Structure formats: structure tokens, C-alpha cells
Amino acid sequence: MTQIGSGHAPGDAPSDAPSEAPSEARGHAPGSVTDRAHIVVVGNEKGGSGKSTTTVHLIAGLLHAGFRVGCIDLDVGQETLSRFMENRRRAREAGDTALKMPEPATLSISTDDSIAAANADNQAAVDAAVARLNATNDFIVIDTPGSANALSRYGHSLADTLITPLNDSFVDLDLLAAINPDTLDVVRPSRYAEMVWEQKKARAIRDGGSIDWVVMRNRLGSLESRNNRAVEAAIGSLARRIGFRIAQGFRERVIFRELFLKGLTLLDLKSSRSAGRLNMSHVAARQEVRMLLRAIGLVEN
Ligand SMILES: Nc1ncnc2c1ncn2[C@@H]1O[C@H](COP(=O)(O)OP(=O)(O)OP(=O)(O)O)[C@@H](O)[C@H]1O
Ligand SMILES: [Mg+2]
Question: What is the 158 CA–ligand 1 centroid distance (Å)?
């Protein structure tokens, strides 16, 4: 099995971890030679929470910051990231030569009847993909499916940074922990939070590395409501209880979804001939992506 080195990730967030991002950046200097790529996994076992949207914007944000980026699609059922990459390749071939490209990995998924053998084959395939991408990239960004499976669990254990997008509601929050509806106290961590905890242990045992877990709110409404504030308070208390940091997320904006079929993100708009002009919402959305990269500590500015 490929050994993943200890890398550049910050330490595990302790239970009393601050919910603010630390001020120092933890990314590499663009183009610098480092011992290995920083692995960012985007995960949440709730479907439709914005994982793939966050993944493609992180990839574009890192590319535009001058980094070399590899990517792996572990959602082998939907293959959203893979389809985005095909669209992007097509846009480039159609003449958008300035379009920055990440290096995608192709995984061949095991068809072995034995679950144990299939899991072992799939892990080996992921390890081989990481080793390949590691040779030529500063970052490896991994998208995962919206449901639990062994491949996704293993992917989580490879993370230096785990980003969990969360729709801004108590329905999604329930995926992190059961919450007392009257007091908003955490009753118990969810299966997903326990799975992340297990993968933190697996990672520490395998190579002594640690996973920096960051939760970001997604599809925030433009109006502050009592519900928004209640969700914010509940996430803050959860962060301390189950050990993650909170990063500013994305607002609900059409631009976060409308360029998918072109294989583009709003960060590609200026460099892309096939995209339209920037409006105020695009500028604000761009700023949200940059803020996320900064909050996670992946880029300095
Ligand atoms: N901030 C946002 N503003 C507007 N639309 C969004 C935003 N985030 C996500 N969406 C839209 O929500 C839908 C679900 O998002 P996405 O596919 O990224 O979620 P996912 O977590 O990857 O889903 P799955 O679990 O099925 O893989 C998509 O149509 C996407 O375009
Ligand atoms: Mg997805």
C-alpha cells in the first residue's frame, strides 16, 4: 500500500477548538517543490449538500492561485466531478486554450464478488492514483458520494483537510449530530461525525498524520433570519463538541450552478472566451470562494 506522508496538515482540532480559522496560511508557494501534495477531501454523507459544487470551485480557486492540482472522483455512481472534467476538456479543445486544467485520475473500480477483495482492490487503486498525482501536483482534491461506502470512508482517511459543506438548515445539521430542539444542545454525534473520528484514528495509525476538519455553510440565504441565527449557534456549539472548524461558505447563487455544463466555474470567467461578463453577484461569489480558500488556510490571499 502506498504510504501517505505526514504532510502539511494542522493538528486535529481539540474538543475546545476555536471556530475561527487560524491566521497563518498552510498552503505551498505556487510551483514550489514539496515532499507531497496536500490532500483535500470534500465529504458529507447527505446527498445534495454541495460537495461537487465546492470541489470544482476549490479546484478552480487553487489553479488560479498558481498551484498544480490533481483530482479524484470517488463518487463512482454519479461521477459528477468526472463529467465536469469532461466538459472542461471539451471547452479547452473547442478553443478556450487559456483554461487552467487540473490533472484528473482515472480509477478502475473492482468488480470482485467478494466485498473484502473489492474493498482491498479499490483502496489499492486510490493509493495508486494518489501516488501518481502526488508526483506532479501541489494539491489533490477528492470528491466523495452523498452516501456511506467503504471507498468514501477510505478517501476520508487520506485527508489533510476535510471540508464538509452543509445546507443551512437543521435537516442537514442533523447529519453531524442529534440536537435537542428546545435547548439546541448536542444529544449525540451522528454516524458521519463518528465515521470522521474513526478515519482520524485510521490516519494517525497509518502515518501519524492528522485531519483538519472544516465545516462550511452552503446556500446561505441573503436575508438573516431567526432560523439562520439558530443554525449558526448550533454549529458553533457542535464545532466545540465534535472538533471541527467553521469556514464561511457560499450563498445561494445561480452562478454556482450555471456553468457546470461548460466545465467552468465563475473563477474562469475572465480567462474564458465561452463565458459571459462578470456582474456584481459573480464578483461576490468569487470573493466567497477566495474567502473559503483563505479560511481553510490553503492560500495566503
Ligand atoms: N451555493 C449554491 N448556490 C446555488 N446552487 C447550489 C449551491 N451549492 C450547490 N448548488 C446546487 O445544488 C445542487 C446539489 O449540489 P451538488 O451536486 O454540489 O451537491 P452534492 O453534495 O455533490 O450532491 P451528491 O450528494 O448528490 O453528490 C446542484 O444542482 C448545485 O448546482
Ligand atoms: Mg456530488
Answer: 23
Query: What is the structure's pLDDT at 34?
Result: 54
Q: What b-and-e string marks burial along 115-125, b requiring 16 or more CB atoms within 10 Å of the CB?
A: eeebbebbbeb
Indicate which residue's Cα is closest to atom 15 of ligand 1.
50
Tell me, what's the pLDDT at 2?
31
78-128 pLDDT, tens per residue? 999 999 999 999 999 998 889 999 999 989 899 999 999 999 999 999 999
Which structural domains are found in the chain, ordered by start? 38-296 (3.40.50.300)
Please work out whether the CB of residue 10 comes within 6 Å of at least one atom of ligand 1.
Answer: no
Residue pair 162/212 in contact (Cβ under 8 Å)? The answer is: yes
Is any atom of ligand 1 closer than 6 Å to the C-beta of 219?
yes
pTM of the model: 0.88
Binding site membership of 50 for ligand 1 (Cβ less than 6 Å):
yes
